[in-house]
Each structure stands twice: as C-alpha cells, then as structure tokens.
Amino acid sequence: MDSAAQHSEKVGGHPKGVYYLAFTETWERFSFYGMSALLTLYMVKDLLPKHAAEVVGLSTLRGLIGFNGTMSDVAFASIVYGWYAGLVYFTPLLGGWVADRILGAKRTVMIGVLLMSAGHLAMSFYSTFLLALLLLILGSGFLKGNISAQVGSLYPRDDDSMRSRGYTIFSTGINIGAASGPLVTGLVAAIYGWHTGFAVAAALMLLALVSYMLGQKHLPDDRPVRREREKAAPLTASERKRVLFLLLVIALTIPAEITYPMVWSIGILWVDQYVNLATPLGVMPSSWFASMDSLGSILFAPVLVVLWSWQSKRGNEPASVTKQGIGTAIVAFAALLFAYGNWGLTEPDSVHAGWAIAGWLIMGLGWMYYWPTTMAIVSKAAPPRMASTLMGVAFLSPFVAHVMAGWVGSYFDQMTPSAFWAMDAAIGAVGATLILLLRKPLQRGLETGLNP
Predict the structure, then answer these.
(1) CA 183, CA 263: separation in Å to the nearest integer?
(2) Residue 74 pLDDT > 90, yes or no?
(3) In degrees, to the nearest 5, what angle opens at C-alpha 158 toward C-alphas 156 and 163?
(4) CB count, 10 Å around CB of 334?
(5) Which of 370, 339, 403 is nearest to 83 (CA)?
(6) Residue 69: what pLDDT?
(7) β partners of residue 422
(8) Residue 65 phi/psi, 5° resolution?
(9) Structural domains of the chain sorted by starting position, each given as residue range(s) with its CATH number in brackets
C-alpha cells in the first residue's frame, strides 16, 4: 500500500496531510458541537414542552424509555442526548468496516460529511428531529474513526513521540471547531431562533467537505482492493495479544468519558439554572459554555507539545498509558470544582461563573492528556489491516460512556448540584486509579511484537 508518509511534504516537521485532516475536523467539529451545544437546551426549553406532538416518532420513543411515564423532561432529554451522543461513537465501528473492506477511508469520509450536512439541515424542522439525529449518527460514524486512522497512517510506526504530537495537532483542529461552533450557533440561535442556529451548522459542514477534497493528494491511497491479500492473512500471536491489551486500554477510558462529556448535556443545564451569567454587556448565553472545554484544550495544547518534546529529549516523557491516567484524574478534579463552587447554594444564578469557567478549561486539559493519546496508542498497536476497524472499536468507549452518562444525568433534578458533581468526579477518580495501578503491564502488553 502506498503511504502518505513516504510522499507527503512536511510543514513544521509534520506531513502536510495532517494539517488538511485537522482543518477538515475543525469545520466538522464546528458543526457538530455547535448543534450539540443547543440540543439539550432546545429539548428542555422548546421542543418537549411546546412542540413534542409535531415530532414524528417522539411519543413512541418516550413510551419505550419513559419509566412508566413518570420521567421529567430533563430526565428524558438527558437520556435522549446520552443515546444520541453514544451512538455517534458506536457507528464508527460500522464506518471502519466499510472503509477497510469496501470503499476505503477517503470515500467513506466524504459520505459521512454529506450525511452529517443533511442531518444538521433536518434539525431545522420540528417534525424531522429524530430523522436528523439518525443522519448525524450515521454520518459521524462514517467520518470519525476513518479520519482519525488516516492521521496515524502519515507517521512511521516506530516514532511514538512524533505520532503523539501529530494527534495533538489534529486534536487542536478539533478543539478550534468545537470552541467556535457553540459561540456562533448559540449567538445565532439567541438572535434568530433555534432552527437558524442548526441551519448554520449545516452550512459549515460543507466547508469540511471542501477542506478534505483539497487535501486528497497528501493522504494515503487506501483502496481496499490493493489490500485484499493482506486482510486475508491471520493475525499473529503477538498481534492477537496487542489487540486484547488495546481492548482493555480502550475500556479503561470509559470513566473519563462519563465524567468529562457530562458538561455537554447536564453541564449546560446546570449553568443555565445555577450559574450567574450576568456581565456588563448583558447576560451570556449558557450554550457558550460548550466552547469552554475546547478553549482549554486549545490553550493547553502548545504547552503540552513543548512539555512532551522537552521530556522526550530527556527520556522522561510519561508513557502513553500513564498520560491516560493523568488525564482521567484531571477531569475528575474539574468535576470537583463544580461541586465545590455550588456547595451550599440552591438559588438560581447563585454560583460564581469563575468556578464553571475553571472547571470547563481544566476538563479540556484532561481531555488532551487522555484522548489524543488513546488515538495514538490504537494507531501504533493495531495490526495495519485492522487500523480503521480498531479505531472504530476505540469509539465504543465513548458509546458505552455516553449512554451511561445519559442515565447518570437523569438524576440531576433529584439531587443537589454539589452531590451530582461529586458523584461525577468519583466516577473519574475510580478510572484514574485503575489506569495508574495497571499502567506498567498495560504498556508492556501494547508493545508486544513491536520492539525487536
């Protein structure tokens, strides 16, 4: 198979292709997070109380998960968001299989972008709300794992540090889009209405397609027909062992993926209800907080790149699994800041915005430690003929975690906010403890058969 790593021009020591992939993800994440920032608020404040009867299939769905009809709108919205966000991370398994065996990553990513554009457009109408979620779920599945796997294909398999930094560059593109999307769609929605905000997200998805098309010559030629003989070969014993350890490492990211993404659903509701958003220029839209964690990732990314490069030169850069444990501990600490800031306060708008801002920014730092590192681990340890499929498997962690987070979030209006966030932090703390205790055997298992 031709490799972009052999042909791609370099910019700043990295293949040019990684910048095109990062730019594509910037616009894709702009649209995705711009819509997601509005989703829970939209359901709780507009769709469910005012227009539920207009949504095709909504009453049937509520009956299926309605806990004997006693579930509040907040609980129902949390569970719907959890399943939506979870399935967004489940369908990359399907997208990876399609890319590896039928279409190749390039074509599969393009289809994903078009499906997501259609999904964002369908969000502009009440009646097609559930259809919109379905299109977004399928489109994201075709795009997510495949574009992440393409980043890894641009680097030599034995250069851990450079590969990790490449994923950090890629993740910075993700976070620029994720930070700017909620700001724009939230402002547009506040001025022109929910559906106009969703329409803006649809338009920006088309920029993702243009960016990806422009970078084609800098990406690997991955047509599956050229790899048929390679795919037919059975896995070696060392490859099977690496896959097993990969599955364990992926599973251990579930606690972090419950603790951190809680800010995207219940976190926005919490800010809307309890945090004082008044400023000298007026009241800040609560949906803007959906940008804060990504802003934190952007601010910390150059610091981490320099830090890890400095540590690498001195031979004391933390191993990949250790970085995962550190990141999980950081997101648990951030959730504790929410609990502490809300301690003893029960009135609306009573929490100082500084606690929320600090927690969100620190969440972004934790994510930069554990998730780009997880992508780099999969990219390195996965057998080449299973790279896209196993990248899709990696997204099963957030699938399980988001579904669980939806269930955990359904208890928000039954607890004090401080108790809720303390529970969220405890989930992350348990995950961090497990990873750090098991880090050495996990790291050895991931390197089976890779080092001579």
Answers:
(1) 16
(2) no
(3) 60
(4) 28
(5) 403
(6) 57
(7) none
(8) -120, 20
(9) 16-219+236-446 (1.20.1250.20)
Per DSSP, 280 falls in state T
Structure-block tokens of residue 386: 């299973």
pLDDT of residue 1: 39
Evaluate whether 160 touches 134 at the Cβ level (below 8 Å).
no
Q: Which long-range contacts (CB under 8 A, 24 or more apart) does 304-310 make?
A: 304/168, 304/368, 304/369, 305/165, 305/168, 305/169, 308/161, 308/164, 308/165, 309/161, 309/165
Return the structure tokens found at 324. 């995962």
C-alpha dihedral, 87 to 91 to 93 to 99, nearest 10°: -160
Q: Is the pLDDT of residue 266 over 60?
A: yes
Bridge partner list, 282: 279
Tokens at 67, concatenated: 């806990």
pLDDT at 274: 94
The answer to which of 127-131, 200-204, 247-251, 364-368 has the lowest mean pLDDT is 200-204
pTM of the predicted structure, to 2 decimals: 0.77
Residue 293 scores a pLDDT above 80:
yes
Single-letter amino acid code for the residue at 15: P
Tokens standing for 186?
Answer: 């939230």
C-alpha 155/C-alpha 166 separation (Å) is 8
H or E element that contains 15: strand 14-15
Q: What is the mean pLDDT of the chain?
A: 85
Task: Check residues 4 and 263 and name the one with the higher pLDDT.
Answer: 263
User: What angle, rounded to 10 degrees, do the helices at 396-409 and 417-446 form?
Assistant: 160
CA distance 428 to 334: 10
Encoded tokens for 308: 């890890």
Asked whether the predicted pLDDT for residue 235 surpasses 50, the reply is yes
Please list, in sequence order, all residues whose beta carbon lies within 8 angstroms of the beta carbon of residue 24, skipping any fewer than 6 positions away: 109, 147, 173, 208, 211, 212, 215
Question: What pLDDT digit, counting tens, does each position of 127-166 carry?
Answer: 999 999 999 999 988 887 788 778 877 877 666 667 777 8
Chain centroid offset of residue 262 CA: 12
